[in-house]
Specification:
Blueprint lengths: L8 E2 L5 H5 L13 H7 L2 H4 L3 H17 L5 H19 L5 E2 L5 H13 L12 H37 L4 E6 L2 E7 H26 L1 E2 L15 H8 L3 E2 L3 H6 L2 H28 L6 E2 L18 H24 L14 H21 L4 E2 L1 H10 L4 H10 L4 H18 L8 H5 L9 H5 L1 H7 L8 H13 L2
Parallel strand pairs: 1-2, 5-6
Antiparallel strand pairs: 3-4, 7-8
Helix pairs in contact: 4-5, 4-7, 4-9, 5-6, 7-8, 7-13, 7-20, 8-11, 11-12, 11-13, 12-13, 15-16
The structure holds arginine.
Arginine (ARG) binds next to helix 7.
C-alpha cells in the first residue's frame, strides 16, 4: 500500500525554503491567504506520486544534460539529491508542506535546500503542467500492470474451480426462474470470459496511457532545444505526445481507465450478487470460507457474505469516480486549468477500490465449496429438462411449436401431481404424446441434458474441460 499518510503535513512551521518566498512568488505583493493556501494545495494527496515525480525529474535532467543545458556534474548533483530525497520520503523523514502546495514544489524546494543553486536549474524547459500530466501517466501505467496481475490471478482461480466442478450440475436461470440444467464449471467460465474482455480493455487503455506529455511545458512547448524522444525512451514511454496543448490538458486516458474499471467492477458486482444469493439458506448452493465472512452482533446463527456484498457496494464508488472525471473535463477550455488537480483523488480511489476488490475475489474464489446435492435438487425442481423433452419430440418428427405445447401440458400435470418429468412413468408421459418411448428417460435426466449440449460454448462437461485446457494454454 502507498504511504499516503505516512508523512506529516506541516501547516504551522514553514520549512527553510518557504520562509524565503513561494517558488512562483516574484510577481506577488502580498502573501497567500492562509485558507486559500490550504484550499488550493494538493500535497495532501499528490504526495502519492513522489516516486514518479522523481523519476520524471531525473529523466528530464538527463535530457537537459544531453542537449547541453546542464553539465554532467550538475546532472549528477541533481540525481544524487533526488535519490536522497526519495530515501528520506520512504524513511518517513519528510514533512510535507502545504505552503509548498504540491509534490513538485515540495521536492524541488528540498532539492535546492540540499544541493543549492543547481537545484533551481532543474525546472528549465518544463512546467508543473507537463510534469503532473507525466507523473499521473507513469503512476497509472504501473497501477494497470498491478491490476492486470490481480485480474489474472482471479482468472486462474476461476479456471481451477471450473476444472474441479466440470460436471457438477446446478439449475441455470433466466428471470431468476429455473431454466435448464447447466454445469458449475460452465457457470465459472462465463465469469472467466467477462474477465478476458476486462483484461483486454485494460491492455488497450495502457497504449494511450503510455504517451509522454513532458516537453509540452506550460502549454506551448519551450524555446530550449529539448529532445523529447530521448526523455520518452528514458521513461519507457512509447512516444512523446504530438501536441503540447493536448498534452497538458486532456485526462481522457484516466477517464478511459476508469471506464474499463467501471465495467470490471460491474462484472465483480454481478459475481458478488450470485455469491450472496447462493450462500443464502434459500439457495444454499455454496459455502464461502469462514475467513471471508463475518457474524452478526445480535443474531448468533448468522454468517454474512460481507466480502461480496462490500464489493457490490464499492462498484458505486467507481461509477462515481467516472462521473467525477467526465464532469471535470466537460467544457474545459484549452489548455491546463486548475480544475485538473481534481483528477487525482477519484483516480486513486478507483485504483484502490479495484485492487482491493480483485484481491479479495482472487483469494476467495478457489476456496468456494459447492453443495452438490442442494444444487442437484434445485435443478430437479423447476422442470429444467422440459426443453429436452421438446427437443426429443422434435427428434421424433414433431414440429417444435407442437412439441412446446405437448411439454406445456406435461409440466402442468407435473405441477398438479408434484412430479418432475423424469419422475413420471412412461404411461403418464404417453398421455401427452404417443411418440414418447422408453428412450425418453435418457434425455430427461440432468446428466443427459447437460451432456447433450456438446458444442463450442455449450454447457456439456466435455466442453468445460476443453475450454479450461485452451484457456490455460493460451490465456
Ligand atoms: N497540483 C497541480 C495539479 O495537480 C500541478 C500543476 C499545477 N500547475 C499550475 N499551473 N498551477 O494539477
Amino acid at each position: 500500500m502507498p504511504n499516503r499518510n505516512k508523512n506529516l503535513i506541516n501547516t504551522q512551521k514553514p520549512a527553510k525554503t518557504e520562509e524565503k518566498a513561494k517558488l512562483w512568488g516574484g510577481r506577488f505583493s502580498e502573501s497567500t491567504d492562509a485558507f486559500v493556501e490550504a484550499f488550493t494545495a494538493s500535497i495532501q494527496f499528490d504526495q502519492r506520486l513522489y516516486k514518479h515525480d522523481i523519476a520524471g525529474s531525473k529523466a528530464h535532467a538527463q535530457m537537459l544534460n544531453k542537449v547541453g543545458i546542464l553539465t554532467s556534474e550538475e546532472m549528477q548533483d541533481i540525481h544524487q539529491g533526488l535519490d536522497e530525497i526519495q530515501t528520506d520520503i520512504e524513511a518517513g523523514k519528510i514533512e510535507w508542506s502545504i505552503a509548498l502546495e504540491d509534490i513538485h514544489m515540495n521536492i524541488e524546494a528540498r532539492l535546492t535546500d540540499k544541493i543549492g543553486i543547481t537545484g533551481k536549474k532543474l525546472h528549465t524547459g518544463r512546467s508543473r503542467n507537463d510534469q503532473i500530466a507525466t507523473d499521473i501517466r507513469l503512476w497509472l501505467r504501473e497501477q494497470i500492470d498491478t491490476i492486470s496481475l490481480e485480474l489474472n490471478r482471479l482468472q486462474s482461480g476461476l479456471l481451477e474451480v471450473a476444472e474441479r466442478e466440470f460436471d457438477t450440475i446446478l439449475p441455470g436461470f433466466t428471470h431468476l426462474q429455473v431454466a435448464q440444467p447447466i454445469t458449475f464449471g460452465h457457470h465459472m467460465l462465463a465469469w472467466y470470459e467477462m474477465l478476458v474482455r476486462d483484461f483486454e480493455r485494460l491492455q488497450d487503455c495502457q497504449k494511450r496511457v503510455n504517451i509522454m506529455p513532458l516537453g509540452s511545458a506550460a502549454l506551448a512547448g519551450t524555446p530550449y532545444p529539448i529532445d523529447r524522444d530521448y526523455t520518452a525512451e528514458l521513461l519507457g514511454f512509447d512516444r512523446p505526445c504530438n501536441n503540447s496543448l493536448d498534452g497538458v490538458s486532456d485526462r481522457d486516458f484516466a477517464i478511459e481507465f476508469i471506464s474499463a474499471a467501471s465495467l470490471l467492477m460491474m462484472h465483480l458486482s454481478r459475481f458478488s450478487e450470485e455469491l450472496v444469493l447462493w450462500t443464502s439458506a434459500q439457495f444454499n448452493f455454496i459455502e464461502l470460507p469462514d475467513r471471508f465472512c463475518t457474524g452478526s452482533s445480535i443474531m448468533p446463527q448468522k454468517k454474512n457474505p460481507d466480502v461480496p456484498e462490500l464489493i457490490r457496494g464499492k462498484t458505486g464508488r467507481v461509477y462515481g469516480d467516472l462521473f467525477a472525471l467526465l464532469t471535470l473535463m466537460k467544457s474545459q477550455p484549452l489548455a491546463y486549468n486548475k480544475d485538473n488537480q481534481e483528477d487525482k483523488e477519484p483516480l486513486f480511489d478507483t485504483v484502490d477500490t479495484l485492487l482491493g476488490s480483485l484481491r479479495a475475489f482472487a483469494d476467495m474464489m478457489p476456496h468456494v465449496q459447492t453443495n452438490k446435492d442442494k444444487m442437484r435438487a434445485a435443478a430437479m425442481q423447476g422442470f429444467s429438462t422440459a426443453t429436452d423433452l421438446a427437443d426429443y419430440l422434435v427428434g421424433k418428427d414433431m414440429p417444435f411449436r407442437d412439441a412446446h405445447e405437448v411439454v406445456g401440458s406435461a409440466v402442468a400435470y407435473g405441477v398438479k401431481t408434484k412430479k418432475d418429468l423424469s419422475e413420471m412413468t412412461l404411461e403418464e408421459l404417453q398421455q401427452f404424446s404417443s411418440v414418447i418411448d422408453q428412450d425418453v428417460f435418457e434425455v430427461l435426466t440432468l446428466e443427459g441434458s447437460v451432456a447433450a449440449r456438446d458444442h463450442l460454448g455449450g454447457t456439456a462437461p466435455k466442453q468445460v474441460l476443453a475450454r479450461v485446457k485452451a484457456a490455460k494454454e493460451n490465456p
